[in-house]
Amino acid sequence: MANLLTFLLVNFLGFGLVFQSVRSEYGDLAGNWLVDYGQAELRLLSNEALEPLVRIDGVQPRNGDGSDLYFVIRTIDTVRAEANHIIQFQEFAANGSWQGAVTVQGKRFGYSQLIVELHSQLAPTNIETSSQELPIAVLRDRVVDERITTYVSAALALLMFLNLGTVLDLQRLQGIICRPIGPMVGIASRFVMMPALAFGLGRALWSSSSANEQSLQLALFYTALAPSGGLANVCAVFLKGNVNLSVATTTINSLLALAFLPLWIMVMARYVYDDDQLMVPFGQLSGGTVALVVCLALGMILRLCVPKTTRFIFRFLKPLSVVLSLCLVGLTVGLNWFVFAEFSWQVLVAALCLPIAGYMATYLLSKLLCRSPTDALTLAIETSVLNMTMPIVLLQSSRLEQPQMDLVLVVPIASSLLSLLLVVVLYVVRRCFGWNVRQDDDGFDHKRLLAEHDETVYQRP
Fold first, then answer.
1. Of the residues 16, 53, 119, 277, which has the maximum number of CB atoms within 10 A of its CB?
2. Which fold has domain 30-139?
3. Do strands 134-139 and 42-45 pair parallel, antiparallel, or not at all (unpaired)?
4. pLDDT tens digits, residue range 358-402?
């Protein structure tokens, strides 16, 4: 036993000596040399090259004349920015100092650092790294005005709501409002369960306290908190859901968001993102909600006053919905295509788990409250189809600096796209197995809607 302990001790000490021989402590080769970059941060465009001045002082070789020493100035993340400048010891002044310009080439938006390393030709594995580093922020060179995306997306969404307003039934809407169990499930799912799921997912996937991971947590939190838009209502049409309940829940949640968003940001978002200046864009949110209600009202007025127009909409409701949805998704993705370069396994897990967990939790809650299969399906779709535009607006109001804003946009865009993809998969499965049928009177059926509309027009004096 004693021999075994002696053997292990000798090997452990030998390993320590080997490890020490391949990694020098700072100051062993040339004393406590210092680096000065002349600025706190370097900001440049992704296609731009800058030459910051770098100064190295206090270089005093410990062994020999220092002819074997050389410095390397490089970037840590060469995908974002690249620099590779080599300085031989012979270029240093007699007092052990050097100053010169170093070329830094921006490549892709994001963050990197410029560092200085000391190498020895006699011991290539001995590398000393300065504790001083220069943060680098690389910005996109082509930036589309964010107002273009916001306004055009809002216009497409309002056309979608105008389209859906023509198929609403006032009697069924009145029943939903008088017995608001369905909308209450939608409210609880959107403003209680989904934020809680996003908070837990964010903490599990991005546990670091770094600014980048905090921003990703905030983006996921806003994605879960934002009420679903017209895309969820369109999905309810295709899945034979209760369109009246879907639109009513969307409208109610959009109105309540004006109260719940500030409350959640005040209570929980500060734990996600360490910033006391998080803001809620009340103007944009309230304006969008008012426009939503107006478009739905106009659609209902068209149904009552212009029956020929509404018959056309009834017949082509699905194609029109698909075209508007594709335009909305295509515009947002097309203008923000660059975010997919930041796609990671954490983003994939978050974008898949959030809508799946939201769907299952909402469906279970609906069944526990004795909702019909159609209503349970509708509310689950309403919760799981994630909004793409509102989280972007909320993040923009959070005053995230570039390129941090560009780095976190991948979360709401990927989450929304994958939630739509999951609905498409559900629709295909239901169609393949013959399950995509109208299950009760509240289920959407455009043929029955056309027949009811023609009968109403025929009976009109």
1. 119
2. Immunoglobulin-like (2.60.40)
3. parallel
4. 999 999 999 999 999 999 999 999 999 998 888 888 888 877 888
